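We close this part of the discussion by returning to an individual protein. In the encoding step, the backbone of a single protein was reduced to a row of integers, each denoting a local shape. The sequence in question and its structure tokens are set out directly beneath this paragraph.
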Amino acid sequence: MNNVEIIDIDGNKVKVSGIYYISTNNNYYFIYTKGEKDNDSHVIFYIVKILQEVTNSAQGPTPTGYLIGLKINDDNEYDMVKKDIASIINDKENSTKSVRYLELSMLNNLKIKDNRTFKLGIETYNKIFNNTINNVNDNTNVVDTTNNTIMVEDNNYDELIKENDSLKQQINELNKKIQIIKDIVN
């Protein structure tokens, strides 16, 4: 984990443990933690969608030069990100790279406007980071604290990875069909 200095929701500069900065479906996401645990010893994580900050001017939206982190409000988009989290866990266990990982240093001075939180069991956390916080028995669920559950149980996330691969294949097939239609139209 790398320390990343961000500007939190209250406007304060704070250092957080940057977990992953990823790109998926032409969007960018930052997963980080402040090292907090809940009463059940689950590690609390935050996830934000990364966008360019703009300000309104007479000429229209003008980039400020800052990146901002926003809450993922769209449930379909968030479902895809949850599958990416499962892919990240699978990547760590199998030394693969099915998700596009980006350099965390690019996020220094990121302005967090709002975020979504989820919890990760100690056992799964240890698998991902080869790190031990405590010897705590847990069921390795990743629990979204916005009342959804990310199903990443040890016996279930392989199915999510297969489902994610299937979706990628379907997207590739649709892109090929779109290209054929474009070729016919042109």
